[in-house]
Amino acid sequence: MSKSDAVVGSAAYSVARQGWSDAGLSPLWESAVAHKPDAEEFMARHWRWSDLQKPINEAMTLVSPENVERRVLLFADPTLSTPGRPTSSRTMNAGLQILMPGEMARPHRHTLDAIRLVLSGEGAKTIVNGRECAMAPGDLILTPGGAWHEHVHAGSSAMVWLDGLNGPLHRFLGTAVFQPGPITGDLPELSANPYVDASLAPDVSQDEGMPSALYRYTYAQVCAALGAAPTQDGGFRRVRYVNPATGQNAIPLMDLSVMQIDAGVRTLPFKTNASMVCVALEGNGQTVFGEQILDWGPKDIFILPQNAWTSHEAIGGAARLFVLSDREVFRRLGLLNETFGN
């Protein structure tokens, strides 16, 4: 028996240990991982669009936005989720929001930043701080933290879009605040879209840490930008959603991008301590994440946690992946760790 074991096993230690516990204290030296990272390795999670149709249809039938705040099916990682608190990644949540013709999701706002990537259907619109943003497949709608937003559907077919929010981050920091409607207070003066051309911006001052006032980014814009983007080493092109007034991220604590992978090309492997929510916008492909192999097709969603070698390949033609990442959080904290292979 070691000296430390003898001390910890003594009667005096046991009495003291109970006293510490009663006082809300815990001896750090008893923790086997006091200064070590968690040993668990998180797995990538993959949801096929075809497998999601049954849950989507059931949610349409059983739940209405008249009796729930939002009709959303959240992607949950069982290793991170707790009872009553499903979680997609350490800092981000992702889910499918469903809106039927004639429905509306009432206005609210929160400190959480949110994005909406339209997957199917047309005819709905999101109203952000009084500005109407039409929603069509591939479009990205921003609802930055603090912005009033609601959804209205005047079309003829069901709308499904990906919700991405940094809720887990805000809950960890103690900054998650929710306010239901009706709308109160003054809305921003720029209620109409102030950006009519990508090369011109209104002459208004805006802090670099502010979110974009361009709330809607159309898929047509993305396709045009990808067509003009240079091919990077490894055979892919990437464009990022930015605030046109500052050139910084469209939402300060989110990294939003679309990458186009040429047919038959596998990207260079990379490893990052950021997490990624990926949506296959077009085409088929394969992602290798550590020892996992994910074969994906259009509208599939997969979540890649931290710290595994990752590469993507387009199969049968070019493919496009939308990526939501918490990379910017780590970069701003000086904690981003990325490595690229050969």
Short account of what is shown:
The protein has 342 residues and is an alpha+beta fold. The chain has helices at residues 3-8, 11-22, 49-62, 167-173, 219-228, 327-333; strands at 45-47, 72-74, 93-99, 104-110, 114-120, 124-128, 131-134, 140-143, 149-153, 159-165, 178-180, 216-217, 236-240, 255-261, 270-272, 276-289, 292-296, 301-304, 310-325, 338-340.
Structure description:
- Strands 1, 13, 14, 16, 17, 18 and 19 form a 7-stranded antiparallel beta sheet that branches. The protein has a 6-stranded antiparallel beta sheet with strand order 2-3-10-5-8-12.
- It starts with a helix and ends with a strand.
- The protein has 6 helices and 20 strands.
- The mean pLDDT is 91.
- The chain is of the alpha+beta class and 342 residues long.
Order of H and E elements: HHEHEEEEEEEEEHEEHEEEEEEEHE
What structural category do the secondary elements indicate? alpha+beta
Sheet with the most strands, sense and barrel status: 7 strands, antiparallel
What is the CA–CA distance across the termini? 50 Å
Ranges where pLDDT stays below 50 over 5 or more residues in a row are: none
Tally of strands: 20
- Overall geometric form: globular
Radius of gyration: 23 Å
Defining traits:
single chain, 342 residues, alpha+beta, 7-stranded antiparallel beta sheet, 6-stranded antiparallel beta sheet, 6 helices
Describe the secondary structure blueprint for this structure:
Blueprint: H1 3-8, H2 11-22, E1 45-47, H3 49-62, E2 72-74, E3 93-99, E4 104-110, E5 114-120, E6 124-128, E7 131-134, E8 140-143, E9 149-153, E10 159-165, H4 167-173, E11 178-180, E12 216-217, H5 219-228, E13 236-240, E14 255-261, E15 270-272, E16 276-289, E17 292-296, E18 301-304, E19 310-325, H6 327-333, E20 338-340
Antiparallel strand pairs: 1-18, 2-3, 3-10, 4-9, 4-11, 5-8, 5-10, 6-7, 6-9, 8-12, 13-14, 14-19, 15-20, 16-17, 16-18, 16-19
